[in-house]
Design goal:
The complex is a heterodimer of chains A (106) and B (123). Chain A is mainly beta and 106 residues long. Chain A has no helices and 11 strands. In chain A, the strands form 2 sheets. In chain A, strands 2, 4, 5, 6, 9, 10 and 11 form a 7-stranded mixed β-sheet that branches. In chain A, strand 4 and strand 5 form a beta hairpin. Chain A is globular. In chain A, 36% of the residues are buried. Chain B has no helices and 11 strands. In chain B, strands 2, 4, 5, 6, 9, 10 and 11 form a 7-stranded mixed β-sheet that branches. Chain B has a 4-stranded antiparallel β-sheet with strand order 1-3-8-7, with no helix packed on it. The chains are: A mainly beta (106), B mainly beta (123). Chains A and B meet through strand 4, strand 5 and strand 10 of A and strand 5 and strand 10 of B.
Chain lengths: 106, 123
């Protein structure tokens, strides 16, 4: 199995902050990586696919980058609606998710 | 696009349960589907994938041999048959449609998710 390691597990930030979440794969996954946002009691929502492709309707403040084994999700200016948990997922082979990063209000 | 799961509930350890996921708003038989679960307060765990035509199926090691995925494209419905349920199977179970375009690979990102079905395994 390909292991996905996300960091940090929790992040405290303020509205307007630039936020970066990192995801590392245990082996190269090319660009086969997605990012999801999940709020309590809700299903995950796709933000980014193929490492840097933006899902339709997702605000432009969300961006993804990376390839191989290192990936980042960046929120350029944190908004109140962005406080949530974020997961990366690789789908180069049998899919696996990172452990999640919870973005909290500072 | 809408995915609606049903069939969740409370079962005793060792019992079986079948979840359903009805897709609407798109041509159901042109997209691969996944099941993903989430134990209360925990992260996401991928369980299984099935190709658009049902011919190819893939399972996580944690559920292989106990869970079976299948689909009835004439009913626009995806199923997850679960046997020998254990307490650690307690979770919300989500179905998800994967792929950006029809006939995309089963190894793709999940664009649409159901609302989740809660399965509680407890004596």
């Amino acid at each position: 199995d390909i292991q996905m390691t996300q960091s940090p597990s929790t992040l405290s930030a303020s509205v307007g902050d630039r936020v970066t979440i990192t995801c590392r794969a245990s082996q190269s996954i090319s660009s086969w990586l997605a990012w999801y946002q999940q709020k309590p009691g809700k299903a995950p929502k796709l933000l980014i696919y193929k490492a840097s492709g933006s899902e339709s309707g997702v605000p432009s403040r969300f961006s993804g980058s990376g390839s191989g084994t290192e990936f980042t999700l960046t929120i350029s200016s944190l908004q109140p609606d962005d406080f949530a948990t974020y997961y990366c997922q690789q789908y180069a082979s049998y899919p696996t998710f990172g452990g999640g990063t919870t973005v909290e209000i500072k | 696009v809408q995915l609606v799961e049903s069939g969740g509930g409370v079962v005793q350890p060792g019992q079986s349960l079948r979840l359903s996921c009805v897709g609407s708003g798109y041509t159901f038989n042109t997209f691969a589907m996944h099941w993903v679960r989430q134990a209360p307060g925990k992260g996401l765990e991928w369980l299984t994938a099935i190709s658009h035509d049902g011919n190819d199926k893939y399972y996580a090691e944690s559920v292989k041999g106990r869970f079976t995925v299948y689909r009835d494209n004439s009913k626009d419905t995806l199923y997850l048959e679960m046997i020998s349920l254990r307490s650690d199977d307690t979770a919300f179970y989500y179905c998800a449609r994967v792929g950006h375009r029809p006939y995309s690979s089963a190894w793709s990102q999940a664009h649409y998710w159901g609302q989740g079905a809660l399965v509680i395994v407890s004596s």
